[in-house]
Amino acid sequence: MTPDRESRERAPVGATASSRPRARLDQPRPPRRRLLPEYDPEAFGRLSERIARFLGTGRFIVWMTIVIILWVVWNVAAPEHLRFDQYPFIFLTLMLSLQASYAAPLILLAQNRQDDRDRVNLEQDRKQNERSIADTEYLTREIAALRMGLGEVATRDWIRSELQDLVKELEGRHDGRPDGHTEGRANGHRDLPPGPRRLPPGSGRGRDAEDR
What we know:
Blueprint: H1 3-10, H2 41-55, H3 58-77, H4 90-151, H5 156-175, H6 179-187, H7 203-211
Keywords: Membrane, Transmembrane, Transmembrane helix
InterPro entries: DUF1003
C-alpha cells in the first residue's frame, strides 16, 4: 500500500471532514476590524441625559435668550463690515434649527433611558410587593394557628372556675357525711379507724396512783 493511499484512507470522510481550521474554544476570538468608530453606549447615554436635563432648565432659556439678543443687536448696530448675519438673520435661524434637530433625539434618548430605569424599578417593586404579600399571608396563617392553639390552652379564669366547682363538690360531700366526721374534719382532726384507742403516755400511771 502506497503512502498516498494510506493518507486518503485516514482522512475523515463525510460531514466531519472540513477544509478550514477548527476554532479553539479555550481562546477568545480576535477582535474584528470595524469601519465605524466604537463608543461606549453608557457614556453617551449619560451625556445625553446631562444635555437633556440642561435643556429643560430655566438657565438654558436665559442663556439662549441672551445669545439671541446679542446676536441681533450686533448684526443691527455694529458696523456693516463687522456684521456676519444681516437681516433677516438666516444664519441664526439655521443655528436654531440645528440645535432643535440635535436636542430632540437627545431628549428622546434620555427619556428612553429613564423609561428603562422606571421599568426596572417597577419590576423590583412588583417583586417586593409579592414578597410582602407572601410574608403577610404566612404571618396571618401563623397568627390563626396560634389563636387556635390558645383556644385549647387552659386559662386562669377557666382553672379558677374549675377549682371553685371542685371546692363546691367537696363541700357537698362533707355535708352529706355524719356529724362526727364533719366536726372532726372541721376541727382539723382525722377520723380514727375503729379499734382500741391508744392512751397518751403517763395516763396509766396516774390511774394506778389514784387506785392506790
